[in-house]
Write a structure and sequence with these properties.
Elements: H1 3-6, H2 12-19, E1 25-29, H3 35-48, E2 57-61, H4 64-76, E3 84-87, H5 88-103, E4 109-110, H6 114-121, H7 131-143, H8 148-157, H9 166-182, E5 185-186, H10 188-201, H11 203-212, E6 215-218, H12 226-236, E7 242-246, H13 261-264, H14 266-269, E8 274-278, E9 280-281, H15 286-297, E10 310-311, E11 320-326, H16 327-340, E12 351-355, H17 361-371, E13 375-377, H18 387-398, H19 403-416, H20 422-444, H21 450-460, E14 473-477, E15 486-491, H22 507-521, E16 524-538, E17 541-544, H23 549-563, H24 608-628, H25 632-635, H26 638-647, H27 652-656, H28 663-679
Parallel strand pairs: 1-7, 1-8, 2-3, 2-6, 4-5, 6-7, 9-10, 11-16, 12-14, 12-15, 13-14, 15-16
Antiparallel strand pairs: 16-17
The structure holds adenosine-5'-triphosphate and magnesium ion (MG).
Adenosine-5'-triphosphate (ATP) binds at residues 9-11, 14, 29, 31-37, 247, 250, 282-283, 483, 485, 522.
């Protein structure tokens, strides 16, 4: 492909991002704005213009799947020689293996079963703590390059909630590292650490790798952890040929040690770097974008702006919220909805079902199997491969009584286990899902047995999937859907306890949950269907469920779209800066899908004069919203107006001090608001 053809169809900002000769380059933009597209075009363009040799490019991404997609996209852009695209782990491991072979070093063994390894290191009371929770702490520390001696202080400073005293964890962590070294084992994080160490200490190795990879590109940079970042620096050496792409609003791996601050401070780390912002969204309809923006606006904290996104696509249907009585109704309902959306000539692969946890997937798989809809489960380790599930199945196999007794034992063990730590809850949910599958199996089998259960599990869960590449609906988690897109997206189980996840307690964890929901919504191109169930089975218990507070925002934004004048304009120019929550804190008890009548009451904390100003501000807001065809709460919520009425800011500076008022809002609305305040008596 000639160089000019590669620039076709790009907007001016994208054009800048593709052709800028500045290094390093940082592309900071919201979901669906073409970041990944620009990254691949930049590689192809630089290659077409002779600025780089694609054989010396390294493109880093987060999953093997997206690495494959990058390579494919590059090939379709005419790159004959394939660019090296991989994950940090795959590239580091390949380099280390080459080095070991060159130097005649016997490769260390890869330690991939950390839980069993840690279990053997525990003694006395330590054995009461699930080894898996200790492993989570070790992984968290290693991702941030925290040594055992520093663990306790770092854990406290980061507000972690380890399953036991941090100094105890630090001691076990120390024993883990010693035993690992004694046995010449390396774990996954060590691959990155050792690769970096060798690059620093072995100049010959460093020189050969830096010659091999002269031009570095990183997609989804917001999810890089400090260890990966340090390795990237070691790969880079003192060169500046680096292009990173990211969206702080999509940072969803903090729990795993990722640090979006690394993206934010990129311009400070590289004062010569150019930052390009993309502001047009090409993926989603204005309707989906408006809902996504409203959700993001609801976070109030921890969210910063990658630029306000403008919709470019044509109008589409308003997002729909479905409620069901039970989780199994929901699974069937999703299957039905998928079938309804499957028109003649359309492909199943144009639809995806996304859920928050792996444990929700089997019920949906079951419903799809029954409905004979082809599906594929992607991403995180499938349920049956989870260690706790393997352990539970092994336990059931050991039981000599009837199958139902073994199942009942398992159910009781789940119910009586005290949850401790994040992973404990997840584990419990997974075992719950297994118990549920066992019940479903018992209900269809006249003489249930363990071998029969295995066969049934194989048939219902994985083995029944159509061939991996065939036309199928994708079922996966929010996390694994990062960077991907589908015309029609179904989001299931949008309930309190799942979205946000029950163990998210701190402000930071909740912000991350909200960003995760934003990531999920922004996967949709044309249609979005969210659902939740009023009851969900967890093991032996049926639990009443509440709709997620985040869904209130979806409902409110959808209602605003329905009652709005010109939906084509909704979402355009909607600021993502930092507006405070429209919905999460006030769940409406009335039927939420209906537009709410305008309120005429004023906040109790305001005196008469301030109340008058408040009403004036509200009337301005409603005019402004109508004129811009955007939901009023996107401009600012009542709390912000109350604060303005009470504090009466007289300058932009003072206005910026008002909660929920960011720079973008100040630029757009500041003068008007200050004028209204100035006129008030
Ligand atoms: P995410 O943050 O979700 O990873 P992204 O910013 O990487 O999103 P892309 O996946 O690169 O976005 O682009 C989103 C969609 O918009 C893709 O289908 C892409 O092909 C399309 N797209 C991007 N830019 C343009 C453009 N200028 N013209 C037409 N389509 C475009
Ligand atoms: Mg992308």
């Amino acid at each position: 492909m000639d160089a000019d053809a590669l620039l076709e169809g790009l907007n001016p900002q994208q054009l800048r991002a593709v052709t800028a000769t500045t290094s390093p380059l940082c592309i900071l933009a919201g979901a669906g704005s073409g970041k990944t597209r620009v990254l691949t075009r930049r590689i192809a363009w630089r290659s077409a213009t002779g600025d780089l040799d694609p054989r010396h490019v390294l493109a880093l991404t987060f999953t093997r799947k997206s690495a494959g997609e990058l390579t494919q996209r590059l090939r379709s852009l005419g790159l004959r020689d394939s660019v090296a695209a991989g994950t940090f782990h795959s590239v580091a491991y390949a380099q280390l293996r080459a080095r070991w072979a060159d130097r005649g070093i016997t490769p260390p063994t890869l330690l991939d079963r950390k839980v069993g390894f840690v279990l053997r290191l525990l003694s006395g009371a330590e054995k009461n703590i699930p080894a898996i929770d200790i492993v989570s702490e070790i992984e968290w520390a290693k991702a941030r390059m925290i040594e055992p001696e520093k663990y306790a202080a770092a854990s406290i400073a980061a507000g972690r909630r380890p399953p036991m005293d941090p100094t105890e964890i630090a001691r076990i962590f120390g024993r883990y590292e010693d035993a690992r070294r004694d046995q010449r084992l390396i774990d996954f994080d060590d691959i990155l650490r050792v690769c970096r160490r060798d690059l620093i200490s072995d100049p010959e190795f460093a020189a050969s790798q830096r010659w091999r990879f002269q031009h570095l590109f990183v997609d989804e940079f917001q999810d890089v952890n400090p260890l990966q970042h340090a390795l990237l620096n070691a790969w880079r050496g003192d060169r500046l040929d680096l292009c990173v792409v990211g969206d702080p609003n999509q940072a969803i791996y903090a729990w795993n040690g990722a640090d979006p601050e690394l993206l934010r401070r990129f311009p400070r780390d590289f004062p010569t770097a150019e930052v390009v912002r993309l502001t047009e969204n090409y993926r989603s309809t204005p309707q989906i974008l408006a809902v996504a923006n409203a959700v993001l606006a609801g976070s109030g904290r921890g969210v910063d702006l990658a630029g306000s996104l403008t919709a470019t696509r044509n109008d589409g249907p308003i997002p729909v919220v479905q409620s069901y009585e039970t989780d199994s109704d929901e699974a069937k309902g999703i299957a039905r909805s998928v079938r309804d959306h499957h028109g003649p000539g359309s492909r199943w692969s144009g639809q995806a079902v996304l859920v928050r946890t792996n444990a929700q997937i089997p019920a949906i798989e079951e419903a799809f199997t029954t409905a004979q809809i082809p599906f594929r489960v992607r991403g995180a380790a499938p349920l049956l491969e989870q260690p706790e599930i393997k352990a539970a199945l092994a336990e059931m196999r050991r039981s000599t009584g009837p199958f139902e007794d073994a199942l009942a034992d398992l159910a009781v063990s789940v119910d009586s286990t005290e949850a401790a730590g994040d992973r404990a809850e997840e584990r419990r949910a997974n075992v719950d899902a297994l118990v549920q599958l066992g019940r479903d199996y018992v209900s269809v089998e006249t003489g249930p047995s363990m071998p029969g259960f295995y066969a049934w599990l194989a048939a219902t869960t994985r083995a029944d999937q159509p061939d991996r590449w065939g036309d199928a609906v994708e079922i996966t988690t929010f996390h694994a859907a990062k960077g991907l897109e589908w015309p029609i997206v179904h989001l299931g189980g949008i309930e309190q306890g799942l979205v946000p996840i029950g163990h998210a307690k701190t402000g930071e964890a909740l912000s991350e949950e909200l960003r995760l929901f934003y990531v999920a919504i922004t996967r949709a191109e044309r249609e979005l269907v969210c659902s939740w169930a009023g009851q969900r089975r967890f093991g032996t218990k049926t639990v009443n469920r509440n709709r997620s507070a985040y869904l209130d925002t979806v409902v409110a934004a959808s209602a605003a779209l329905r009652s709005g004048t010109d939906p084509a304009e909704v979402g355009k120019g909607v600021s993502l800066s930092a507006p405070p929550p429209p919905a999460p804190t006030r769940r409406s008890k009335t039927r939420p899908d209906l537009p709410r009548p305008a309120k005429t009451d004023t906040p109790a904390e305001l005196d008469e004069a301030d109340s008058k100003l408040f009403l004036a501000l509200r009337s301005w807001r409603s005019d402004r919203a109508k004129a811009a065809s955007m939901p009023a709460f996107v401009i600012c919520n009542d709390r912000t107006l109350t604060e303005i009425a009470a504090n009466r800011p007289s300058s932009t500076q003072e206005l910026l001090g008002v909660h929920g008022f960011g720079e973008i809002k100040a630029t757009r609305f500041g003068d008007e608001i200050l004028a209204i305040v100035a006129q008030a008596d």
